[in-house]
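Hey, I'm writing a tutorial for new members on how sequence and structure tokens pair up, and I'd like a real worked example in the thread rather than a made-up one. If someone can provide the structure for the chain below, I'll link this post from the tutorial.
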Amino acid sequence: MRHQVNQRGLRVVQLACSLTAGSALALAQNPGEYLSYSWKGIALQPQLDTTALFTDNLFSSAGVNRVSDFMMTFSPGLRLQWGRDGLNQVSFEYHHDESILVDNSDFNSSQNRLALSVRYATGRIRVDGQDSVQFLSSLMGGSIGQLRLLVDRVTLADTYTVTYDWTEKTDFYFRGVHNTTDYDKKQFLLDQTTLEGVLGTSYQWSAKTRVTTEGFYGRTLIGANAAPTIASDSSFYGGFVGLRGNFTSKLTGSGKIGYERRDFVTGDSQGSSTPALAFDLSYQFSPMTSATLRYDRRTAPSPQFGGQISVSDAVSFQVNQMVGNSGKWLVRGNTTFSHNNLTTANITSGAQTINVERTDTILTLGASLVYQPQPWLSCIAAYNFENFDISFASQTASGLLQVVPYHANRVSLSVAVGF
């Protein structure tokens, strides 16, 4: 059996390498001629990503239920841009993902992703906007993973910021945010739509730093699918004070601290108050070495049970190390840790009332080698380890929900062609 797996893996890697070589040969003579077309300020850029991935835990299972497989993903795409980088511009991107599994072909899937970006400035007013629509189909962990189901869903995300420069040092801004996740009606997961408005101001404290103050208010709307639920909409509000810019010659980024409160609009479910924090810091140790630290703490409704809130802490750390003097080789190491505290919520199963309060933790460790011989060609070899752990307040809930701790190892080889 091990011999058969190794042979399948060898064929997948050989296919990925042949795609790499084929792309390089086809574009070696004059790549710009094929990968970027320009006409009267409009740029048209075709793109292609290919990835060969091996995982030893396809369904995020534990023990004897673990299943390994190889997956090939092909992602052709197209980018259309009007205007110049850094100035007024509009860009549109479309990507199609086709994923093929060697041993579990029943779970082959197709996805489509669209994105629009707008940047406009006139006088003292600046507008920045991003929109995305994704038609996704993929395997997910948790109880869905134990059932071995492809989860079909549509996600929409829109963020627009309008900034008014009141003086040379002071500006005011308004940001509108919309996010929707709409699961297939056959799923037991809850649909969510979040609308948020942010009003803020920033002041140039020094030549390279700005102080920011902002307040926000939003609503999250819940919709049920396959199972009845006590789903309840919730409202949230709070504020931040922060600092962004170049703190030293080597340290840049942003940090903000504040407060967030979330309450359910109807029902007897408990709300949640928490400090709200966000940091995004980068440090340049040398021209060859840099590191980035990110941390975020916010609240959100549970996607499984109405009346339950997830208070999450997420921290990530990444180190980039250039190798050699050519500028073509990069070694990257990264780790992320997420702690989710899902608050008390009761569900009814038969004659029982069960508390589904729980705590989830996810740890990932990764390393990758990046080779970019041309601006239009990148090759990445990567390893990723993921460990999921869970703790229930009630053993009854543990048996009912069928969410199990697991770990997974993933090895991938990917090639990206395009600007």
